[in-house]
Known about the structure:
Blueprint: H1 12-17, H2 21-27, H3 30-33, E1 40-41, H4 53-65, H5 73-91, E2 100-103, H6 106-117, E3 124-128, H7 132-140, E4 145-149, E5 151-154, E6 160-163, H8 166-174, E7 179-183, H9 195-208, E8 212-215, E9 243-248, E10 261-264, H10 267-275, H11 277-283, H12 288-300, H13 302-323, E11 330-332, E12 339-343, H14 352-360, E13 362-363, E14 365-366, E15 377-381, H15 386-403
Parallel strand pairs: 1-13, 3-4, 3-7, 7-8, 8-9
Antiparallel strand pairs: 2-10, 5-6, 9-10, 11-12, 12-15, 14-15
Helix pairs in contact: 4-12, 5-12, 6-7, 8-9, 13-15
Amino acid sequence: xxxxxxxxxxxxxxxxxxxxxxxxxxxxxxxxxxxxxxxxxxxxxxxxxxxxxxxxxxxxxxxxxxxxxxxxxxxxxxxxxxxxxxxxxxxxxxxxxxxxxxxxxxxxxxxxxxxxxxxxxxxxxxxxxxxxxxxxxxxxxxxxxxxxxxxxxxxxxxxxxxxxxxxxxxxxxxxxxxxxxxxxxxxxxxxxxxxxxxxxxxxxxxxxxxxxxxxxxxxxxxxxxxxxxxxxxxxxxxxxxxxxxxxxxxxxxxxxxxxxxxxxxxxxxxxxxxxxxxxxxxxxxxxxxxxxxxxxxxxxxxxxxxxxxxxxxxxxxxxxxxxxxxxxxxxxxxxxxxxxxxxxxxxxxxxxxxxxxxxxxxxxxxxxxxxxxxxxxxxxxxxxxxxxxxxxxxxxxxxxxxxxxxxx
Length: 408
């Protein structure tokens, strides 16, 4: 479903405001149908806000033209060119078209990088909390996953600030790890990593000869106007022989089901990727409709994306105001992404997400699935209509007050 004001029905914000849980359930996504009954879907990392008109038009054109088969070279080339142009213009990262490969998704590319481009048997470092599959994929490739829990400190206005445990990452590299997975912007805590953090990671990578797999799929979704996404590979000390960058239009333009991600590599990493049989197989699995949607999103979807970022930012601020007054729930609100990270440990619940699903009718992700150290946390999706978001935080607040009578 596309959401636009092309028919003169009002602004995007007005259309988003009118969304209802019933509409979402009728749409039939996993996010809204996994749990039956009157449960708000706030767990899977996808938006309820449709996609850009340009993307919808590209999909309709493909259907009309019957372009639903395997990837034509001309479409692949155009998608790679658009990816390189977008990276140059949006993030000042000089990427050549020849450095871009189309793949079905970020996770399959990570699996191939682990299996074919790291030392056999070497562990994989994953800073946590981390996107759940990053913790599972190493084992699927016969590798140990070294979880490095991140650090926090109190920032301005009392907010919690999450940072990489760089000493822990270095220790894991020194002990023989073969790959670091770097998520930037950071799912689930919503951080935009700084140039200084990225430079330290680059120094460690070069010192220990450990490749970095940079997941930058949320790069288009920086919410704070004073911040900017910095591609890891754009930093002067990052070694192109040791760097793989995965990205996609799937989060920014809400098209994860169309299966077209991009892996960007240069130097020896590029040569290794091109020579690997598994990589060649993945290139044949990217979706032509996904490639066409990606071209449309990157070329003509910026206006829609700007409005969506503003809408999510307003949702974020409303959730912040609502939950900051609830004793026992400490929210980390995102600088980027549309995901909030809720510290519910003071509630004394072993499985807070299960509690909120059963007692509040709000389905969130359980914190422990993002790393062993994060029991007592929940991940909350903010990319929905305003009325739905308001109902979500009302239900969470009411459930906490019932659990702890007298809590503010």
